[in-house]
């Protein structure tokens, strides 16, 4: 159930409780007032009837002597005072009633009693209850749509904030909720989300600029190191130094590529190419022993072949570096699947996605943890979907689906 209907249901339930509480209180108060007025009327009638009876010996004000309907509590009063009792019996249109009685003469004398019928007042009370029930139903019917409408306004405002937060979490650092109406908690949440986005955007942009500046500044000295390595006499030292310099140059190029992807400075150059041929070429350029399976009829796709080769090459290298042979690449339709038979992707990588400089390998020197990050960034640039998973029988499976 959405927040809108929860608020509407809560408002309706609250209105029902208030109407029920008011109805019960009014009913109890009115019923008590009717009984007290009937008791007072019966008490006064007995007083007046007793006065007339003692002076004239006649019965007035509807008084009776020892009536058979008299409640048992009033048949034998303990003294000569006036007493009252409630009689809940209903006979036709008579009842419930309030009786008042007083003994005539000394002990053992007859009892003079007066009966006050409350049926009319109680019928009026029933009509009052029915009227309050109808009025409460009408009020509830009118209040519920208003509650739904008000809750809808609140829900739309909260949904706007939620959508903005979702866009920010998806990487859109320019997403903002913008000004919102009112000065309530929702407006405070929206302002806080926008402030969080501003702060996060500044920090990420600062980190990206730092990465790009460092990579750019390292590019020149690394090129100089590579040129200087060419001047060394052939030997083990020259080979070792050249390999390390090549690794350093690869790291710098990867950092530059990531910084350009983060900054949105890359634009794909689309072309119609045979998917199987591009994948086979990318695998062959890695120089690693990899099985490639393509369909007999190659699918022609519109994509950037250079970036596609980059993605496939990184996936294959990652499979050989962190997985185990055999490494298999399968091309079917617009889908490319790279699978190894190693331990599979770490659980945190499947949960949080690739992280920079986090390889998941216990040993040092097994890559810089940028290959999957670059592959994921290039896939997003191409509008493709890169899904990482583990096979049920072991091994990591990377599935690249190109868009139509």
TrEMBL record:
Q: Disulfide bond: is it a keyword of this entry?
A: no
Keywords for this protein: Kinase, Membrane, Phosphoprotein, Transferase, Transmembrane, Transmembrane helix, Two-component regulatory system
Q: Which PROSITE patterns match?
A: HAMP, HIS_KIN
Q: What is this protein called?
A: histidine kinase
**Main location per UniProt?**
membrane
InterPro entries annotated for this entry? HAMP_dom, HATPase_C_sf, HATPase_dom, His_kinase_dom, HisK_dim/P_dom, HisK_dim/P_sf, Sig_transdc_His_kin-like_C, TCS_sensor_his_kinase
Its GO CC terms are:
plasma membrane
- This protein's species is Streptomyces morookaense
Q: Which residues form the Histidine kinase domain?
A: 213-404
Q: Which Gene3D superfamilies match?
A: 1.10.287.130, 6.10.340.10, Histidine kinase-like ATPase, C-terminal domain
Q: Which GO terms describe its molecular function?
A: phosphorelay sensor kinase activity
Pinpoint the HAMP domain residues. 152-205
């Amino acid at each position: 159930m959405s927040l809108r209907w929860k608020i509407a249901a809560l408002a309706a339930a609250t209105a029902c409780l208030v109407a029920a509480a008011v109805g019960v209180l009014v009913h109890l108060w009115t019923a008590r007032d009717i009984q007290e007025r009937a008791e007072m009327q019966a008490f006064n009638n007995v007083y007046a009837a007793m006065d007339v009876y003692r002076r004239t010996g006649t019965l007035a004000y509807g008084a009776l002597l020892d009536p058979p309907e008299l409640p048992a509590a009033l048949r034998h009063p303990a003294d000569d005072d006036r007493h009252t009792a409630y009689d809940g019996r209903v006979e036709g249109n008579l009842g419930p009633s309030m009786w008042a009685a007083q003994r005539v003469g000394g002990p053992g004398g007859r009892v003079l009693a007066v009966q006050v019928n409350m049926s009319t007042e109680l019928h009026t009370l029933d009509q009052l209850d029915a009227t309050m029930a109808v009025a409460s139903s009408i009020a509830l019917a009118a209040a519920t749509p208003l509650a739904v409408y008000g809750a809808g306004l609140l829900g739309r405002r909260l949904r706007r904030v939620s959508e903005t937060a979702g866009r920010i979490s998806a990487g859109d650092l320019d997403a903002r909720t913008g000004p919102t109406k009112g000065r309530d908690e929702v407006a405070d949440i929206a302002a806080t989300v926008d402030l969080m986005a501003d702060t996060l955007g500044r920090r990420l942009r600062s980190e990206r600029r730092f990465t790009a500046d460092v990579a750019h500044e390292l590019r020149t000295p690394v090129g100089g190191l590579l040129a200087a390595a060419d001047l060394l006499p052939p030997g083990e030292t020259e080979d070792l130094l050249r390999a390390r310099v090549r690794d350093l140059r690869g790291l710098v190029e990867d950092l530059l590529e990531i910084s350009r992807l983060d900054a949105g400075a890359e634009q794909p150059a689309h072309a119609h190419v045979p998917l199987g041929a591009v994948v086979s070429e990318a695998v062959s350029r890695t120089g690693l022993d990899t099985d490639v399976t393509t369909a007999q009829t190659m699918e022609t796709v519109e994509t950037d072949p250079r970036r596609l080769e980059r993605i496939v090459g990184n996936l294959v290298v990652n499979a050989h570096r962190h997985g185990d042979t055999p490494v298999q690449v399968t091309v079917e339709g617009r889908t490319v699947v790279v699978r190894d038979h190693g331990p599979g992707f770490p659980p945190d990588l499947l949960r949080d996605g690739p992280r920079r400089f986090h390889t998941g390998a216990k040993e040092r020197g097994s890559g810089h943890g940028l290959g999957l990050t670059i592959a994921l960034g290039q896939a997003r640039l191409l509008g493709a979907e890169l899904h990482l998973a583990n096979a049920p029988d072991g091994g990591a499976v990377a599935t690249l689906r190109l868009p139509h």
